[in-house]
Write a structure and sequence with these properties.
With 466 residues, the protein is α+β, with helices and mostly antiparallel strands. It has 3 domains: 166 residues, Beta-Lactamase (2-Layer Sandwich), CATH 3.30.450; 72 residues, Helix Hairpins (Orthogonal Bundle); 141 residues, Heat Shock Protein 90 (2-Layer Sandwich), CATH 3.30.565. It is built from 9 helices and 12 strands. The strands form 3 sheets. Strands 2-1-5-4-3 form a 5-stranded antiparallel beta sheet. Strand 9 and strand 10 form a beta hairpin.
Length: 466
């Protein structure tokens, strides 16, 4: 099961970037630390090699004194100039020379000696880890040299074993200091790389955001198709979506055509039936009651056909892209047409709608809605019908209010019951209101009815702003 947070493609990419960076930084820290440790050890080896070379160069003069004590002091003074640690007891910086049964050692060894065994030929050098006094870990350099030294006027052949050490902690401390510093820089580098990755993901996801905004714009009716510009990876997706929208529009047109054909196909037979019934009534073939019953059945059939045709047309229109409709011109035109009716001659129409007021709805559907509501209002208004438009951040409200007798509170509740036969109620708010409710719900809106008995009746159309 995927955690809801990581259902987002951006979250997954960020998580992948973070995990990859952590792995790379961890591996980089290991390799850099190992490389630095090798570098420090090589420097230590070079330093020990130089000190063994220095000891070998000073060995002839030191042993030529003929006294081990004097030789040790002379050699110790020379080496102390290179490393003061040779004078500090148990410092880890030690030197030792073993030759002709004599052992010369640094003052730092105190009374201890180094027991080091190595495989070295004459002049070669061997680096080995050893344990010093108090089991102190050391890095030792061992070299065996042959000398012919003049002692008391006689040249004497001598084999000397030279040893120089540094504490292993020198490498450890340098490595620890390096890690503490490199970790800071690696963390800074990691944060910068993660921020760069975030920017890259943001830039890479911009075309997806543009497609999402374009889809929202299609739903709002501001555009009809997705823009074709963008990366080649998304061009196919955009093309397929536009083809789908084209197919939906074609399906809508076909549905409308079939609905119109069906309406025309049924209208003529129903008209013939009504004419024949009127003829039968006049000729006395059927009684007036029989004729009235059949005419009522035909009227009900005609009303049902009309309502279902409207439903089919509305479902088709909302399936595709719906352009945004400027409603004030349409309201003005419908009011001008209905205002010519005889029963509307004494009624004032008050239109409160901004010039730029718009609604994402098909023009024919809007005409159907407003026409039915205004017909009901004209039928019952006394002197005035008010049409108001209010656009908020969440909803758009279009209200039609008449100053007629209104509807009792109990009957108003029945008008809003789902599935109730609205055409059986008073004030002509029957099939017209049913059609209005079907169309409004198809656009994710709702129809609210409000009335104060003997004062007014108001229908409020509430559509989502987006």
């Amino acid at each position: 099961m995927i955690v809801p947070l990581f259902k987002s493609l951006r979250s997954r990419l960020l998580l992948g970037t973070l995990v990859s960076l952590l792995i790379m930084l961890f591996v980089a820290q290991i390799f850099m630390s190992d490389l630095f440790e090798r570098h420090v050890e090589q420097r230590v080896h070079d330093e020990l090699n130089e000190r063994l070379n220095f000891m070998g160069a000073k060995l002839d003069n030191a042993l030529g004194t003929g006294s081990a004590q004097n030789a040790g002091e002379l050699l110790g003074e020379e080496l102390a100039r290179l490393e003061p640690g040779y004078q500090r007891p148990l410092s880890g910086y030690y030197w030792q020379v073993a030759t002709n049964g004599q052992t010369l050692r640094s003052r730092s060894l105190w009374d201890a000696s180094l027991d080091v065994a190595g495989n070295t030929s004459n002049g070669s050098i061997d680096f080995i880890p050893v344990q010093g006094p108090d089991d102190q870990p050391l890095i030792a350099a061992l070299r065996t040299v042959s000398r012919s030294i003049v002692i008391d006027g006689r040249r004497t052949p001598t084999v000397a074993h030279l040893i120089a050490t540094v504490p292993r902690s020198e490498v450890h401390n340098a490595l620890k200091a390096f890690k503490s510093e490199i970790d800071i820089y690696l963390w800074i580098l990691g944060i910068l790389l993660f921020l760069v990755g975030m920017v890259q993901i943001q830039i890479a996801s911009h075309p997806l955001n543009r497609i999402r905004n374009a889809v929202s714009a299609i739903r709002r009716g501001t555009i009809a198709r997705l823009p074709g510009t963008g990366p080649s990876e998304l061009t196919t997706l955009v093309s397929e979506m536009n083809d789908l929208l084209d197919a939906l529009d074609q399906a809508v047109e076909k549905a409308r055509s079939r609905a119109a054909d069906l309406a025309h196909g049924l209208k003529t037979p129903l008209t013939v039936i009504q004419g024949e019934m009127e003829h039968l009534r006049h000729t006395g073939v059927v009684t007036a009651e029989q004729a009235e019953g059949i005419e009522q059945a035909v009227d009900q059939l005609e009303n049902h056909i009309r309502r279902e045709l409207v439903r089919a047309r509305v479902r088709g229109s909302t399936a595709g892209a719906v352009t945004r409709l400027e409603i004030r011109p349409h309201v003005t035109r419908i009011v001008q047409i209905l205002g010519r009716l005889p029963q509307a001659s004494d009624i004032d129409f008050v239109i409160t709608i901004d010039e730029d007021a718009s609604l994402a709805i098909d023009a024919s559907d809007f005409t159907e809605i407003l026409g039915n509501l205004l017909e009901n209002a004209i039928r019952h208004a006394r002197t005035e019908i008010a049409i108001n438009y209010v656009a908020g951040t969440q909803n758009i409200i279009l209200s039609i209010r008449d100053d007629g007798p209104g509807v009792a509170e109990s009957e108003l509740g029945n008008l809003k019951l789902r599935g109730h036969r609205l055409d059986e109620h008073m004030h002509g708010s029957g099939l017209g209101l049913a059609i209005v409710e079907d169309i409004v719900e198809a656009y994710n809106g709702r129809l609210e009815l409000e009335s104060q008995h003997n004062h007014h009746f108001q229908a409020r159309l509430i559509f989502p702003a987006v």
